[in-house]
Design goal:
The structure holds three protein chains of three kinds.
Chain A (H helix, E strand, L loop, with lengths): L1 E5 H13 L3 E9 L2 E6 L26 E10 L2 E6 L7 E6 L1 H4 L1 H8 L7 H8 L1 E6 L25 E7 L2 E6 L2 H7 L4 E3 L15 H10 L4 H6 L8 H5 L6 E7 L3 E8 L20 H20 L9 H5 L5 H10 L5
Parallel strand pairs in A: 2-6, 6-7, 7-8
Antiparallel strand pairs in A: 1-9, 1-10, 2-3, 4-5, 4-12, 8-9, 11-12
Chain B lengths: L10 E6 L3 H10 L8 E6 L7 H9 L4 E6 L10 H19 L6 E5 L5 H18 L29 H14 L5 E6 L2 E5 L25 H4 L4 E5 L1 H12 L8 E6 L7 H4 L11 E3 L19 H8 L2 H13 L6 H5 L24 H14 L9 H5 L7 H15 L27
Parallel strand pairs in B: 1-2, 1-3, 3-4, 5-7, 7-8, 8-9
Antiparallel strand pairs in B: 5-6
Chain C lengths: L3 E6 L11 H8 L5 E7 L5 H13 L4 E6 L2 H14 L7 E5 L1 H5 L5 H20 L7 E4 L3 E5 L3 H12 L3 E5 L14 E2 L4 E2 H14 L3 E4 L2 E9 L2 E8 L14 H5 L5 E2 L8 E2 L2 E2 L11 E2 L5 H5 L4 H5 L12 E7 L1 E4 L3 E3 L25 E3 H8 L20 E8 L15 H15 L4 E6 L9 H10 L4 E4 L2 E7 L2 E8 L4 E7 L1 E6 L1 E3 L3 H8 L26 E3 L9 H18 L4 E4 L4 E3 L9 H5 L5 E7 L5 E8 L9 H5 L5 E3 L4 H10 L2
Parallel strand pairs in C: 1-2, 1-3, 3-4, 6-7, 6-18, 7-10, 18-29, 20-27, 21-22, 21-27, 22-23
Antiparallel strand pairs in C: 5-30, 8-9, 11-12, 12-17, 13-14, 15-16, 19-28, 24-25, 25-26, 31-34, 32-33
Helix pairs in contact in C: 1-5, 2-3, 5-18, 6-7, 6-15, 11-12, 12-13
The chains are: A alpha+beta, B alpha/beta, C alpha/beta.
C-alpha cells in the first residue's frame, strides 16, 4: 500500500504554485549540454528523468550567490543606513536530488551557529522541498560513502520514488510535505523498490583520521598540483557556504552585499600585508577536504559533504573531492 | 526627465586634454550654443581612455557615450590616438556581438580649432539620443534570447602508436634529466609526471581536448623545474602568445607536439593545421594525419557566430543576459585560460572597483566584457573557458567575435606567427577609422 | 572626510549671467567632502586669489576646486595661489563652468544644474588628488653630436663655444661629411673645402670637443640630462695617439688600386689611407677587407715603415662610455641607389638608365668629385670610361624624387640647384661643351637661387628640357638619351658623352636603428621626426634629443647650418639650469601586481617603460616587472589603458579619480 502521483499531478502542482505568485524551482535543461536547477516558468520546463543530476546545487535558493544585506545613502558628509525587506515569497523546490536536500539541515546549522541569519532562515521557512529519489548514478556519485543513499530522507519534506515512467510513489516526511500533497495523491498497491546506490568508495572516519595527522604530508602536494584554483567545485557544492561581504554602489547610494566565495581562490586568505597563509593550491585543496571531513565535523558533529559528486563533474581538470578521498581510502598516500 | 516630463539624455564624454577639450573651449569662446546634456571627463589623451570606462558610463546610466580626441597625426603624445583607434576597432566588434546599441557610442576626432564641430557633434548626439530614448535595453533579457550552439566536429581516433611513443620519449626525458616534470594528459584529467616509472599515467586519445599550457602560469608547477609539456597545434598557439608577452622562456620548456586528428570539439571544425609547428619534437605520423575537414571549411568565426550576428541587437543582448544570469563568478573561465595569467585580476581590484565583483547582471556583463576584451588579439581559440563553465555559458562566441575582428581588420591571428608583435600595444597608420567621425 | 573648498567665479557677468551662482554655492556646499563653497566676482583677480588663500588657511582646506574658466586658462594661476597658502599645488582642480557651460547655454536653470554637475566631477577628482612634487632631474652638461658633416660640425662648435663639452661621433675615418667632397657650392660658387676645412680643423682642435672618428653609437641609455652613450670605436689598426700623419705608410702600401669611398668610386686609394688630404683627424685607417697583412698575414710594409710604431694589426673594436645630457643627431643623407638593386622592398630602381652598367652614367656626387680640384682628376673633367673630355653632358633631375612609382614621392629640394651648378661648372671647364638638363619643375626658392638658375641657362647656355628621360642606351660608344620635351611637345634624343643623374636624397644608412636606440620617431622614408613641424622643428619626442641637417628632411647647406645652430641653442637651453623640472603627472607601475607582460612597454609612445626586476633588500630576485622612467614619461596614460591588471596608473588622472568622477554622474 502506497500513495502515488503522476507527472500530470506534479505539473498541476507547479501550475497552481506559479498561479499564486509563488516560486517553483527544479531541474531544467537550459541548453543542450547544461541541466541546472532554475526557477521554472511552467511545468514543461521541469526535467524529471534521464539525467544524473543538475550541474548546480539547491543551495542557491536559500543562500543566493548574491544578496543585499542592508542599504546606504550618502547625504552630504553623512551616511544613512536602511534595512532591506526580507524575502517573503514561498518557494517549492521540486524534483530535488536527495543529496541536495540533505545539505539543507547542514546549512541550517552553520547559518544559526553564532547568530541566526535572518535572510537564510526566512527563506528556509518559506521553502518546501520535494525530492526525487535517484534512479541512476554515475562514477562521480558517492552518497553511500557519506552515509546517504539515493532515497535518503534527510532534508526532504516529500520524497518521490519512481514507479513507472511518469508515475511516482510519494513519501511525505514532514507536516509541510503532507499539507503540500494533501488531496493530490492516489492510493496504489505498487511499492517502489529501493534504488541501488553507488558502491561505497571510502570511509569518512578514515579520511578524518588521515587529515588530522597528515597536515604536512607530501600527499597534498601531488594532489593539489593540477588544481587551477577556480571556484567551480565550491560554487556547485550543496554544502559549501563561504561568502564575502563588500559594499557595492555608486557615489550616492549602495548596499552591503554578500557574494559566494571559495577557499580555492588565492585571494581567499590573502592578508592586507600580502602574506598568504595558504600560499599555494595544494594548501587550498587540503583546506577544502579538511574542512569538510574534519574541521566541520569537529564543530557540528557531521561531515560537510553529501556525496553529490558535483565537484568532480564540474572540475575543469577532473579533480573533485572523490579522487582525493578514494586515494586516502585506498591508502595510496602511504 | 526634465520638469516638462521630457526625456533628457545623459551623455558622458571622454575627451583628450589637448584637442577636443580645447575644441570645446573654443566653442565656448565663440559662444556656440548646444544642449547641456554632455558631461565632459577630461583625460590627457585618447590613449588613456580604456574600454572599461565606456562600460562604466553605461553602468551609471548614460544614454550615450562620446569619445573624442585629436585627429590622426595631431596627437600631443604622438601616437596615443592611434593606440586608442586600434582598441576601439576591436572593442566595437565585441559590443556588436553583445548586442549593444551602437548608435549610442560615438567616436570623433575634434581638434582644438573645431569648436563648431564640437557644437555640431554634441547637438546631433543629444538629439539622436533623445529620439532613441533612455537606454532601457542595456543588459536586458527582453525575451526569446537563446544563444546559438556551435556544432562539434566528429570525433576521430588519434594516430595509432602516438601514446606509446609519447610515454617512451617522456621516460627518456625524465630519466636523462632533460626535464623534471611532464605536463600531460591522464585518464580523467591533466597529470604532472615527475618519475620515469609513472609515464604509464600519460595517455593520448580523443579525450585530450583541454589545453595544458595553462599550467605554465601555475607557481606550483613552475617550482617543479624544467617541464616537458604535451601540446596540440591549437594549444601551441598559446605558447607563441606567452612567449611574445614575456611569460615564457622556451629554453625552460620542452614542447612535445602531438599530431592530432581532432578532438571532436567545435574548435576542431574550423581547425586547419594538425601538426605542431614550433614544438621541440613532434609525436605521431605527420604524413598520415589528415585534416578532419578541408581548410577553412567553416567561416573562421564558425556558423554559430554568424547566426548570433544575424540577430537584432536586442536579441543578441537578450541572449547574453540570459547566459550571464547563470554566471556565479566561479572564475573557472579565467583559471583555465592559459592567457589569463595576471597575479591579481582586475576584478579583484577595488580601488577603484572597475568591475563589480558581485554576480549580478551588471557585474557579470562587466566581467565577461573585460575577460573577452583582455583576450582581444590574444585568444587562441582553445575554448577552455566554455568547456570549464559549470553554468554552460558559451563564452567562445565572444572570443570568436574578437578573433574574427582581428583577422578581418588586421589580418591577425593570435599565436600563428612567432615574428609578429602583439596586436594591442601596436598600431598602424592604416588602421581603419570609418566609424570615427 | 575631505575638507574641500569650492570657489565659484562669476567671471564678472560671464558666468553669473547664465548660472545662478548663489544657488550653486548652496547646492555645492552639500556635496560629500566639501567644507565650504562660496562665490566671488573674479576669483582670478588678486583679491579673489587672496580669498582662496585665506580660506585654505582658515578652513584648513586639503583641496580646492575653482569653478570658473578652462584649466588651460588659469590652472597654473590657482596652483600658484594654493602653493602660496601652503597647499600642495596639485590639490587644485578646476571646473570649467564658463567655456563649457555659461557661454554655451542660455537656459539659466539647465546651466546651473550642469554647473553643479561639473563641479561635482571636480570635487570627486580633488578629493582623490595626491600631493605631488615636481620631478627634478640633474643635468650632465655635455652634449653628444652624432655625425660630423657640416650640420654636426656647426652644432658641435656652437655648443662648445657656449661653454659646454661636446662628444662628437663620426662613422667615417674623417669628419667633413658630404660637403667635404663637393666641388663648389651654389649659389656663390665658393669652394666647398675652402669654407669647410677650417671648421673641421676647429672641431679637431677645440679644447671642449672630444672627437670619436671611425666610431658609431652602439647603445643609448637614460633620458634627458642623463644619457649614457656607449660608443663603438671600430678597429682602425692605427694608434692615432702615436701616429703623426706623416704619410709614409700609405706611400709604401703596395695595394693602391682600391676604390675610394670618398671619391664614390671615381678614384683609388691604398689599403692604408686617409680619405682625403684635409681629413680630420689626419690619421690613416687600414681597410681590413683589402689589407694583405690582415687577410693572409702577408706584406706588413707599413708597420715596418712606421717610425712612430703606430700600426697595430691586432687592433679590435672598443666600446667606450660617455655621459651626456643632450644629443644632437646630424647623420645626414645618402643618395638613392638608382640601379635595379634597392635596399627596401618599397623602392624601385631605374634599370632603364643603365647606371652601374654604363661607366659614363654617374650620379651627382660622383660628378662633384670629377669637378673637384682635389678630386681624382685634379679638377680636369674626364669621363670615367676612357678619360676623354665629354662634349655633350646630359643632366637628369628628379631621379627617384617625386616619383611614386619608384617609391619616393617627396622632392629632394637641392637637386634643381646643384644641377644648375653642375651645368655651369661644366661649361666653365669645357668651353665648347654643351650641357643638357632634363627637369620636371625648377624649384629655386632661396636667396639668389632663381637668379643662379637663370645664369646657368642664359649665360652658360645650358639647354633645359621639361620632361623625363625614358631610356638610356649605348650605341657606337655614345650614350643615347631618349626623353621628351613636354613644353615643345616633341620627343628628344641626345647623344651624350656623360650622363649625370641627380638622385634623390635619402637618410643615411642605419638611421632607423639609431632612431630606435634614441627613441626618436621616423617617417616611412626614414627621415627623423621633429616634435612639431612648425613650432618645434629641431626637437624630437625624445626629450633631450635634437635633430638637424638632412637626417630630418632634404635640405641644403645654409638650412642645415641654420638648423644646427638652432639645435645647439636648444641644447644650451637644456643646460642653462643645474636641474630640469618636470611635471609630476606621470605614470607609475604597481610592481606588486605587475605580471610583466610589457603591453605598456610596447604601447608607450616615449619608450619610457623599461623591463626591470624586483629584488629583496638583499638582492634576491623576486620577479620581473615593468617600470616607468620618470625622466622620459610625458603622462599620456596609454600604458594605463593597455594594462590588463591595471597595475599602471597615471598621477593627476588616477583610475580612482576617473571612476569616482564617472560614478558621481549616476
Amino acid at each position: 500500500m502506497s500513495f502515488t502521483i503522476t507527472q500530470d499531478g506534479l505539473s498541476k502542482l507547479v501550475n497552481e504554485w506559479l498561479a499564486r505568485g509563488k516560486r517553483v524551482a527544479g531541474p531544467s535543461r537550459v541548453k543542450r549540454d547544461c541541466i541546472l536547477y532554475v526557477p521554472l516558468q511552467g511545468p514543461d520546463q521541469l526535467l524529471l528523468e534521464d539525467f544524473i543530476r543538475p550541474a548546480n546545487s539547491l543551495k542557491e535558493f536559500l543562500f543566493p550567490k548574491h544578496e543585499r544585506l542592508f542599504g546606504y545613502r550618502i547625504n552630504g558628509n553623512g551616511v544613512e543606513l536602511f534595512e532591506l525587506e526580507p524575502p517573503k515569497t514561498e518557494q517549492l523546490l521540486i524534483a530535488a536530488r536527495p543529496c541536495d536536500a540533505a545539505a539543507l539541515p547542514i546549512l541550517d546549522q552553520v547559518f544559526n551557529w553564532d547568530c541566526a541569519d535572518e535572510f537564510y532562515n526566512r527563506r528556509r521557512q518559506l521553502t518546501t522541498v520535494v525530492t526525487l529519489a535517484c534512479s541512476a548514478h554515475d562514477d562521480a556519485c558517492f552518497c553511500t560513502s557519506v552515509g546517504l543513499s539515493p532515497c535518503a530522507e534527510r532534508g526532504s519534506d516529500v520524497m518521490l520514488v519512481k514507479l513507472d515512467r511518469g508515475k511516482y510513489e510519494v513519501r511525505c516526511h514532514t507536516e509541510k510535505g503532507r499539507s503540500l500533497m494533501e488531496g493530490r495523491l492516489e492510493p496504489s498497491d505498487q511499492v517502489a523498490s529501493e534504488p541501488l546506490g553507488p558502491e561505497k568508495r571510502f570511509d569518512p572516519a578514515e579520511v578524518r583520521e588521515f587529515v588530522k595527522h597528515n597536515f604536512a604530508s607530501a600527499f597534498w602536494q601531488s594532489e593539489g598540483l593540477t588544481c587551477l584554483g577556480c571556484g567551480a567545485c565550491a560554487y556547485t557544492c550543496p554544502t559549501c557556504h563561504c561568502f564575502d561581504i563588500i559594499d557595492e554602489g555608486n557615489a550616492n547610494e549602495g548596499a552591503r552585499v554578500r557574494n559566494w566565495d571559495s577557499c580555492q581562490f588565492s585571494m581567499f586568505t590573502q592578508h592586507a600585508s600580502g602574506h598568504n597563509p595558504r600560499e599555494n593550491q595544494p594548501a587550498r585543496q587540503r583546506q577544502r577536504i579538511s574542512h569538510k571531513f574534519d574541521i566541520y565535523p569537529e564543530k557540528f558533529g557531521e561531515i560537510l559533504c553529501t556525496g553529490c559528486g558535483n565537484c568532480t563533474r564540474n572540475c575543469p581538470v577532473g579533480i573533485g573531492a572523490l579522487s582525493v578521498l578514494t586515494e586516502i581510502g585506498h591508502g595510496e598516500h602511504l | 526627465m526634465n520638469e516638462a516630463g521630457q526625456f533628457e539624455p545623459k551623455i558622458v564624454a571622454y575627451v583628450c586634454n589637448w584637442c577636443t577639450y580645447l575644441g570645446a573651449d573654443l566653442a565656448g569662446t565663440t559662444r556656440l550654443e548646444y544642449p547641456p546634456n554632455v558631461r565632459i571627463i577630461r583625460l590627457p589623451c585618447t590613449g588613456r581612455i580604456d574600454f572599461n570606462l565606456i562600460v562604466k558610463a553605461f553602468e551609471i546610466g548614460a544614454d550615450a557615450v562620446l569619445v573624442s580626441g585629436c585627429h590622426p597625426g595631431d596627437c600631443h603624445y604622438t601616437a596615443g590616438n592611434y593606440h586608442a583607434r586600434r582598441r576601439w576597432i576591436l572593442f566595437r566588434e565585441l559590443l556588436e556581438a553583445l548586442g549593444f546599441e551602437m548608435e549610442r557610442i560615438h567616436f570623433t576626432w575634434i581638434s582644438a580649432a573645431e569648436g563648431r564641430k564640437w557644437q555640431q557633434v554634441v547637438t546631433e548626439i543629444t538629439e539622436q539620443t533623445r529620439k532613441l530614448g533612455p537606454y532601457k535595453n542595456l543588459y536586458a533579457d527582453t525575451g526569446n534570447g537563446s544563444l546559438p550552439i556551435p556544432e562539434a566536429a566528429p570525433a576521430v581516433d588519434q594516430p595509432a602508436g602516438s601514446e606509446g611513443s609519447l610515454r617512451q620519449r617522456c621516460h627518456q626525458l625524465l630519466a636523462d634529466g632533460t626535464v623534471k616534470v611532464v605536463i600531460g594528459y591522464g585518464t580523467g584529467g591533466p597529470v604532472c609526471v615527475t618519475k620515469p616509472a609513472d609515464v604509464g599515467r600519460l595517455v593520448w586519445n580523443n579525450q585530450c581536448s583541454s589545453n595544458l599550457t595553462t599550467y605554465l602560469k601555475r607557481q606550483e608547477v613552475r617550482k617543479l623545474g624544467r617541464a616537458a609539456i604535451v601540446v596540440k597545434v591549437c594549444d601551441e598557439r598559446a605558447l607563441v602568445v606567452l612567449e611574445k608577452e614575456s611569460q615564457l622562456d622556451r629554453k625552460d620548456l620542452h614542447v612535445m607536439g602531438m599530431a592530432c586528428n581532432g578532438m571532436g570539439q567545435p574548435k576542431c571544425a574550423t581547425c586547419d593545421v594538425r601538426v605542431p609547428r614550433f614544438a621541440d619534437e613532434v609525436i605521431g605520423e605527420v604524413a598520415s594525419v589528415p585534416l578532419a575537414g578541408p581548410p577553412n571549411a567553416a567561416p573562421r568565426g564558425g556558423a554559430a557566430l554568424e547566426v548570433l550576428l544575424a540577430k537584432s541587437p536586442a536579441e543578441r543582448m537578450a541572449c547574453w543576459a540570459r547566459e550571464f544570469e547563470r554566471c556565479v563568478k566561479c572564475y573557472a573561465c579565467r583559471q583555465v585560460c592559459p592567457l589569463c595569467y595576471c597575479e591579481r585580476c582586475i576584478v579583484e581590484k577595488n580601488r577603484p572597483t572597475v568591475i563589480d565583483p558581485s554576480p549580478t547582471v551588471k557585474g557579470n556583463f562587466a566581467w565577461h566584457i573585460t575577460r573577452a576584451f583582455h583576450l582581444a588579439g590574444r585568444c587562441i581559440g582553445c575554448d577552455e573557458c566554455t568547456r570549464a563553465c559549470p553554468a554552460g555559458i558559451d563564452l567562445r562566441l565572444l572570443n570568436l567575435s574578437l578573433a574574427k575582428a582581428a583577422e578581418e581588420h588586421f589580418g591577425y591571428r593570435a599565436g600563428i606567427n612567432r615574428d609578429v608583435e602583439p596586436l594591442i600595444g601596436a598600431y598602424s597608420l592604416q588602421d581603419k577609422e570609418n566609424f570615427i567621425r | 572626510m575631505s575638507r574641500i573648498g569650492v570657489f565659484i567665479c562669476w567671471c564678472g557677468e560671464n558666468i553669473a549671467r547664465t548660472v545662478d551662482v548663489d544657488a550653486l554655492a548652496q547646492e555645492v556646499s552639500k556635496f560629500p567632502g566639501v567644507r565650504c563653497a562660496m562665490n566671488y566676482k573674479y576669483v582670478c583677480s588678486d583679491p579673489g586669489q587672496a580669498l582662496v588663500r585665506e580660506k585654505i588657511a582658515a578652513e584648513k582646506l586639503d583641496a580646492v576646486v575653482i569653478a570658473s574658466c578652462s584649466p588651460h586658462m588659469h590652472l597654473k594661476t590657482f596652483r600658484r595661489a594654493a602653493q602660496l597658502a601652503g597647499l600642495n599645488p596639485y590639490k587644485v582642480e578646476m571646473a570649467n563652468i564658463r567655456e563649457h557651460c555659461s557661454w554655451v547655454h542660455h537656459d539659466r536653470a539647465k546651466a546651473t544644474a550642469k554647473a553643479a554637475s561639473l563641479i561635482r566631477l571636480s570635487v570627486e577628482k580633488a578629493r582623490l588628488d595626491h600631493e605631488l612634487q615636481p620631478i627634478r632631474v640633474p643635468v650632465t652638461r655635455r652634449a653628444l653630436v652624432i655625425g660630423g658633416g657640416v650640420a654636426g660640425i656647426q652644432a658641435a662648435l656652437d655648443i662648445a663655444d657656449a661653454g659646454y663639452e661636446v662628444v662628437m661621433v663620426e662613422r667615417e675615418p674623417s669628419i667633413g661629411g658630404k660637403m667635404a667632397g663637393l666641388s663648389e657650392t651654389f649659389p656663390t660658387l665658393d669652394c666647398s673645402q675652402c669654407i669647410l676645412t677650417p671648421r673641421m680643423v676647429e672641431v679637431g682642435q677645440h679644447p671642449r670637443i672630444k672627437l670619436y672618428s671611425y666610431s658609431e653609437v652602439e647603445r643609448v641609455e637614460g633620458y634627458i640630462g642623463n644619457f649614457t652613450i656607449t660608443i663603438r670605436q671600430k678597429a682602425r689598426y692605427v694608434d692615432i695617439s702615436k701616429c703623426t700623419g706623416c704619410g709614409d705608410c700609405w706611400s709604401v702600401c703596395p695595394l693602391k688600386r682600391n676604390k675610394s669611398e670618398f671619391d664614390y668610386g671615381m678614384g683609388v686609394r691604398a689599403s692604408i689611407y686617409v680619405p682625403f688630404p684635409q681629413a680630420v683627424p689626419a690619421r690613416p685607417v687600414i681597410d681590413a677587407k683589402t689589407c694583405a697583412k690582415i687577410i693572409r698575414n702577408g706584406c706588413g710594409l707599413c708597420e715596418k715603415k712606421c717610425k712612430a710604431g703606430a700600426i697595430n694589426f691586432q687592433d679590435t673594436d672598443k666600446l667606450v662610455e660617455e655621459k651626456v645630457g643632450a644629443v644632437v643627431v646630424a647623420t645626414g643623407y645618402k643618395l638613392y641607389d638608382i640601379g635595379e638593386k634597392q635596399d627596401k622592398a618599397s623602392l624601385a630602381g631605374y634599370g632603364e638608365y643603365g647606371y652601374g652598367q654604363y661607366k659614363d652614367v654617374i650620379d651627382s656626387l660622383q660628378f662633384e668629385r670629377l669637378l673637384s680640384a682635389s678630386g681624382p682628376t685634379n679638377g680636369v673633367l674626364k669621363r670615367p670610361s676612357d678619360g676623354a673630355e665629354p662634349k655633350n653632358v646630359v643632366f637628369i633631375s628628379c631621379v627617384g624624387s617625386r616619383d611614386n612609382a619608384k617609391g619616393l614621392p617627396y622632392c629632394s629640394k637641392i637637386c634643381c640647384m646643384y644641377t644648375a651648378k653642375h651645368a655651369m661648372l661644366y661649361k666653365h671647364k669645357v668651353h665648347d661643351g654643351q650641357a643638357h638638363v632634363f627637369y620636371m619643375d625648377i624649384r629655386a626658392g632661396g636667396k639668389g637661387y632663381e637668379e643662379f638658375v637663370r645664369r646657368a641657362i642664359e649665360q652658360d647656355g645650358a639647354k633645359y628640357y621639361r620632361g623625363r628621360v625614358s631610356k638610356i642606351t649605348q650605341e657606337d660608344g655614345k650614350l643615347v638619351v631618349r626623353g621628351a620635351d613636354t613644353l615643345a611637345g616633341v620627343p628628344i634624343t641626345v647623344e651624350a658623352d656623360l650622363v649625370v643623374l641627380a638622385a634623390a636624397m635619402r637618410p643615411a644608412d642605419g638611421v632607423a636603428e639609431l632612431a630606435q636606440k634614441l627613441n626618436v620617431g621616423y617617417d616611412e622614408f626614414g627621415f627623423l621626426l621633429e616634435s612639431h613641424p612648425k613650432l618645434r622643428p629641431v626637437e624630437t619626442n625624445a626629450a633631450g634629443v635634437f635633430v638637424c641637417g638632412a637626417c630630418q628632411a632634404p635640405k641644403d647647406i645654409p638650412e642645415s647650418v641654420a638648423q644646427a645652430s638652432a639645435a645647439a641653442s636648444k641644447v644650451a637651453v637644456t643646460f642653462a639650469a643645474d636641474e630640469l623640472m618636470r611635471e609630476p603627472e606621470i605614470a607609475g607601475i604597481n610592481e606588486q601586481t605587475c605580471v610583466a607582460c610589457y603591453a605598456c612597454l610596447r604601447a608607450c609612445p616615449y619608450h619610457a617603460i623599461e623591463q626591470a626586476e624586483v629584488r629583496t633588500p638583499r638582492g634576491v630576485f623576486v620577479k620581473h616587472t615593468a617600470r616607468v622612467n620618470p625622466g622620459l614619461c610625458m603622462g599620456c596614460g596609454t600604458c594605463v589603458a593597455v594594462c590588463p591588471s591595471k597595475s599602471a596608473d597615471l598621477e593627476g588622472f588616477t583610475e580612482q579619480q576617473i571612476y569616482a568622477m564617472v560614478e558621481s554622474l549616476v
